[in-house]
Design goal:
three-stranded antiparallel sheet; 12 strands; globular
């Protein structure tokens, strides 16, 4: 699977293309870990292995790849579960959910915390961990609300949970609604985002308007429906336990480094999602055997 033998993604596979890898590709088109992970059409598709994803994640030359996802016991750096996916962030998050549910069902493992990098810090993932699974997310929150133009960011506005309003730096309230709606008005917005708006009268008379909303008649602040889980993750990030989790996350990255440098799995020999799954599973088994060989104490030699 290389660029010399690929086709543009918008053109799709040629009609005469047929192989086992193509059959597997068509079978996972709706899978959340592969074809259904993102609606974005890849730049290139490989007729040899169309389920592989054209990616430039290593900041170098782009190539076709799969992603291997590990669920690891941080106490001993043992790989508990493995799940392949296409090489995009949304698919990796889906794979993490699959592994957490699978180890709970098959091994009765109930993790108290999950340590991961920022790729897993989306609002939906944090909400799923906190409210659905009861797992503490030791994960950096994906937050793009900070402004760089000198105006107030959302973090400068204080949220009042009891009254469900924001207070601006000038002391005024930002509300969702300023008039009564009918009884059947939906509580959840279609895009999962609440919008809190200040009164234009308050903003016109405010001395901080030039630093708050210089190009708008009134200030607006958005809030995700999953903001409670995001706030919970932010509170955890200020604890000593989070510092420990960040340090232990190095065990995860070390396993990926060993996978490439010691086991030499920088290229797959089998095609298709099933081939990638087999190779990733065998490689993780080899890594666990290496680890277990170090954990088991050596036998005491018997004297003659």
């Amino acid at each position: 699977a290389n660029r010399q033998r690929c086709v543009p993604g918008d053109d799709g596979l040629p009609p005469e293309a047929a192989s086992r890898a193509i059959d597997e590709y068509l079978a996972v088109l709706d899978d959340a870990a592969f074809g259904g992970a993102t609606p974005v059409t890849p730049k290139f598709i490989s007729p040899a292995d169309p389920a592989s994803r054209w990616t430039g994640a290593n900041k170098g030359l782009a190539f076709f790849a799969y992603a291997t996802n590990y669920l690891i016991d941080l106490d001993h750096a043992i790989i508990v579960d493995v799940e392949p996916s296409t090489a995009v962030r949304q698919a990796e998050v889906t794979a993490a959910r699959t592994m957490i549910e699978r180890v709970r069902e098959h091994h009765n493992l109930w993790p108290a915390r999950l340590a991961a990098d920022t790729a897993y810090g989306s609002a939906e993932m944090l909400d799923w961990l906190v409210h659905d699974q009861g797992i503490e997310p030791h994960i950096p929150v994906i937050d793009k609300a900070e402004r760089i133009d000198g105006t107030f960011s959302r973090s400068d506005f204080a949220y009042d949970h009891a009254a469900d309003v924001y207070h601006c730096p000038g002391g005024k309230e930002l509300k969702q609604y300023r008039r009564a709606f009918r009884a059947d008005h939906p509580d959840t917005p279609p895009d999962n985002t609440y919008r809190y708006r200040a009164s234009k009268m308050d903003c016109d008379a405010c001395a901080l308007k030039s630093r708050c909303c210089p190009k708008a008649p009134a200030r607006k602040v958005t809030r995700s429906i999953h903001e409670g889980a995001r706030d919970f993750a932010r509170d955890i990030a200020r604890t000593d336990a989070y510092v420990v989790s960040r340090r232990e996350r190095k065990k995860v990255e070390m396993l990926f480094a060993h996978l490439k440098r010691i086991l030499k799995l920088d290229r797959l020999r089998l095609r298709g999602p099933n081939g990638a799954k087999d190779e990733f599973l065998l490689a993780a088994t080899a890594q666990n055997l290496r680890k277990l060989a170090k954990l088991i104490p050596p036998l005491t030699p018997a004297t003659a």
